[in-house]
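Human: Here is a favour to ask of a fellow structure person. Comparing notes only helps if you start from a blank page. Give me a protein, with the fold worked out from its sequence. Please set it down just below, with no commentary around it:

Assistant:
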Amino acid sequence: MAKKKKSTPSFDAARFRMAEEASMAGFPAATPEVFDEPERRRLQAMGIIPTPVTVTPQEVPTEEPPLEEPPSKEPPSKEPPSKEPPSKEPPSKEPPGGGKTVTGTYTDPETGDVYLVYSDGSRTLQARGTKAADAARAKAEAEAAAKAQRQSAFDLLLQQFGNYGLQALVEPLRGLIESGVSPAEFTIRLRETDAYKKRFAANQARINKGLRALSEAEYILEEDKYQDVMRRYGLPNTYYARGDMGRQEGFEKLIAGDVSPIELEDRIQTAQRRVINAAPQIKDALTQYYGDEISNGDILAYVLDPEKAIENIKRKVGAAEIGGAATMAGLGAGRARAEELQRFGVTAEQARQGFTTISEFLPQAQVLGERYAKQGLGPFTQETAEQEVFAIPGSAEAGRKRRKLAELETAAFSGTSGAAGGALGRERAGAF
């Protein structure tokens, strides 16, 4: 009995199974074109492959369909299915169900999302983009970097001004760290504050005079140099005392006037020679009048800047200058009289000239005053002479008294001694 030969699957059946396995593995689904006409109809009737849908002529390719290959007579291959990884070819451009084709892709410029574009104009999302997230992340990183730069600029300013004890000037700028202000503007904003303008007030005066404004370091260095000079020459510390935020108001006029520390020292030396060394009588008068109430430093401060010196200092120095002038002329002047003459407007120069003149005629006037006391004129004193010479209240009466004494002296010698006596009387009266 002949042995029954085992049947083998047809070539088409093998192709179907391979297509089915490929579909289950994620490969593109089998299409009707894979099978010959009889097999295709049978599989379509079983619902294994889709029945083609009639499409419009515009969507049907104009190319001729490929010729069907005759069934192969070679026995099917017994090799096992390939274990190669699935193909990475894009999916079919014909979505399940047919009717439209993929014509291209579209990438959203704002989000980066990628869409498939179909022949009917519709789109489907293929891949989610990251542009929005990337932009948000980049923005956050840029803002963080800018804030770090502002923080660094603030810290640098705080450190620089802290070296001079001026942290309080910078603290109000702390709010700029959270703002969008450029770090380069921090110094500009600082110099616009009222506190800064008050601390470096002389800079505005320099600008008004056509001079350049000093930097903060230059300004403070000038203050330190001025202070050192004044300390060495014994000026009162009230002249350079530090106020709010280290402000030294006494130096603002010097800085505004562009006075160098060398020029300041020269001024002090000149004042010292003029008031203390060259005129000891003034220093003695100050000691005699006011004791320890006034010092050499007070005198220098007055001479350097009389407008800055307080009224009390000006009154004391003026009275001492008048008293010193009287002493130099061989006369005397008490504190009350010197202050009175100062109130009448007598200056130091007027005092020197006036007391010199008084010293020339006062001794003789005093003698004549005593000699003719019975004439009702009264004594002729230094105060009487001061009234006439300095043209202060009582000057008219003092002048009349001096002329009357001269006339009496001339008449006394003329009437008793003849020509010789008259000549002597006129000489004596003329000197008076």
Q: What stands out?
A: The first helix runs from residue 11 to 24. Residues 360-432 form one domain. The CA atoms of residues 164 and 236 lie 23 Å apart.
